Amino acid sequence: MPIKAPFLGPYRLQGFFCVFFLACGLAAKSDPTFDSGAYYQGRSGFFGGSGQLYYSEAFMSNLAVLGTQWGDEGKGKIVDLLTNLADVVVRFQGGNNAGHTLVVGDQTYALHLVPSGILHPEKTAVIASGVVVDPDVLLKEIDELTQRGVTITPGNLKISEKAHIILPHHKTLDQARESGGTGPALKIGTTGRGIGPAYEDKAARRGLRLGDLRDLDYFREKLILGLAEKNCLFTSLYGLPAADPEPVVQAARTWAERLLPFITDTFRVIRQAADGGFNLLFEGAQGVQLDIDHGTYPFVTSSNPTAGAVAVGAGLAPRDLNSVLGLVKAYTSRVGEGPFPTELLDQTGHLIREVGREYGTTTGRPRRCGWLDAVVVRAAVELCGVDSLAVTKLDILKGLPELKIAKSYLLNGQEIDYVPAALKDLDLVEPVYETFPGFDQDISAAKTLSDLPDNARRYLDRLTELVGAPLGLVSVGPERGQTIVLREFFR
Q1: Separation CA 203–CA 434 (nearest Å)
Q2: Known catalytic residues?
């Protein structure tokens, strides 16, 4: 009997196909000549492969795609690429403080809240309960995408009724803290979009959720209660006028009218898909070193962009997450304040930023750039259980006479292989580099690893050795087809 999952349109997986794919998986694992690239080419023409199967579990259902550095690793392109083989794409944490840039043909899309899978109208895109949502930003993004011909309906975009709302006073508080006003300032380098204060209210049990738009009287009552505390901060500490709840209540009427058709119980959507054997792709925002628990605190985001957060932020049982793909930019970048051991403040760092167009998708701020830091990536591999790597922007390194990877740090004369928790220690560390000859060849048309220059392959080989995870993908350009695929991600 087919699984009933009307939100997935034509995708129905029956018992026959379960048996078929299982048989294919067993055959692939037992056949040493199995060519993963050929398999992908049979499914979708733009995939290329090396003919070598790097990963022991060839067929998976539920995949998380996470950044292993400080974000901006190119998750948007990789998620968009893999969405071709997924049924449901889920955003599970963060807010519109993150952005993904996607290049499809001659079109470039900048997404901040809507999952990257929305560019595939036959797929289901989900904004889950772990995300904080600015309704005005979301509606603007939906309108802009719709004007460009992207299909967005309640049938292919599901938004959690449990996701918390970023309200105007959250943004006011965020910006006041960054600037200091007349009060104390700890400059973190936030986007000022209200994400942190919204998560604060969530933890303090004072937040408003999207499902609250169904009862605007209750919405108003809870808003006034929350503003009582915030207005004390605004007037007494920051020298700002008190926030008026009434304009927010009026705005909420528009939010309710336009967003309620999309708002649903996304836990049930995800659960039905998982139980039905559909392929789920979980799209992380930011990167592991911005994790509020495990990152370079306090210069972090306000959520958990780690594999463990998929279970909480999306509502997926931990046992149902089958695979974790860790994205690694071929160098390192970071936006905002905070420690950055391999940062390059010279002409090389400037060149990488300009060639790589390293400016924030959300804010336009220039990113700080530096050499690849294997200590940081290895920490993410261990913390998140990363079982394969997607190396992005390898093409940006073309023309550099030499390349470097930090394999460890020196702290007070002692070599360490971990990221210190104390900021004062992290500020003192000195990277211990391994140096590699660069490459001058254009790699943008490479379809297999053997198409890459020897020096590029040596660089990649050493990266995998240092961080303890094999390659799964290598991106050699911004477009979908400029990707070398080395393993299977979905059955």
Answers
A1: 43
A2: 72, 100
| pTM, two decimal places | 0.84
305-338 per-position pLDDT tens digit: 999 999 999 999 999 999 999 999 999 999 888 9
- What number of other Cβ atoms are within 10 A of residue 277's Cβ? 19
Which CATH fold topology does 328-485 show?
Answer: Adenylosuccinate Synthetase; Chain A, domain 3 (3.90.170)
What's the CA gap between 66 and 390, in Å, rounded? Answer: 10
Residue 188, judged by CB atoms within 10 A of its CB (0-12, 13-18, 19+), counts as middle
- Determine the length of the chain: 491
DSSP 356-389: TT-B-TTT-PBPEEE-EEHHHHHHHHHHHT--EE
Every domain of the chain with CATH number 3.90.170.10 lies at: 328-485
pLDDT of residue 361: 65
Asked if the 164-259 domain carries CATH number 1.10.3210.10, the reply is: no
Distance CA 383, CA 295 (A): 11
48 versus 411: the higher-pLDDT residue is: 411
SS3 call for 340: coil
